[in-house]
Amino acid sequence: MIEQGNLPTQRVNISTQKMLGGIGYILILLSWMPGIIGILSSLVGVVLWFISMYQLSNILRKPSIFKKILISIILAIAGSIIALAIGLMTGVSLFASVRDETGAILGLGLGTAITIILIYAILVVAVYFYKEAYEILAQATAHNLFKIGGILYFIGAITIILFGLGILLIIVGNIVLAVAFFTAPNEVEVQGT
């Protein structure tokens, strides 16, 4: 144990966690493949990444990393379900209130628009927490690529509405995060007992 200022520090090994995170991101990137391979790749990748983030949060004594990741995931899943339900209810209620073809098209269009707007807003907020988790991880590991990847992902979420530019930035963010996991130091100093 090394004494730094008044707080004791110790070196911890994160090589297993960074390998899990890096492999997880590679599998997440492969999720763009069509069919069952993409779906399975995505699921396995997310599980490996999630385990990595949980373990890093514990090893680095930064519970806020995992807390922000959980908030992000819960917001994305619950928010999307709620937005979809609201959009469907809006569309169905407008469709039912006006019984002609124009009303049906209007109801369906308005329901779809409300759903897209709500999902977009929830996605941006969820990815904000995701970015925050990576900023904390970058600081804890002294590896700035985590912060850069999180920022690219966040900007991608904001600009996803601009004809695919956001999707490109999200893919680049995922690539940067995969590289960040593989190039992070194997050992880092952690303050506290």
Verbal overview:
By secondary structure, the protein is mainly alpha-helical. The chain has one domain (2-191). It contains 6 helices and 3 strands; from the N terminus they run E-E-H-H-H-H-H-H-E. The protein has a 3-stranded antiparallel sheet, with no helix packed on it. Strand 1 and strand 2 (7-13) form a beta hairpin. It is elongated. The mean pLDDT is 86.
Which terms would index this structure?
mainly alpha, elongated, 6 helices, 193 residues, three-stranded antiparallel beta sheet
List the helices and strands and how they pair.
Elements (H helix, E strand, L loop, with lengths): L1 E3 L2 E7 L1 H16 L4 H25 L3 H35 L3 H41 L3 H14 L6 H19 L3 E5 L2
Antiparallel strand pairs: 1-2, 2-3
The gist of it:
By secondary structure, this protein is mostly helical.
- How many domain units? 1
Kindly report how far apart the N and C termini lie. Answer: 9 Å
Instruction: Give the strand order of the largest sheet, numbering strands 1, 2, ... along the chain.
Output: 1-2-3
Sheet with most strands: 3 strands, antiparallel
- Backbone CA Rg: 21 Å
Oligomeric organization of the protein chains: single chain
- Mean pLDDT comes to 86
Q: Which structural class matches the secondary elements?
A: mainly alpha
Low-confidence stretches: none
Task: Report the principal-axis shape.
Answer: elongated
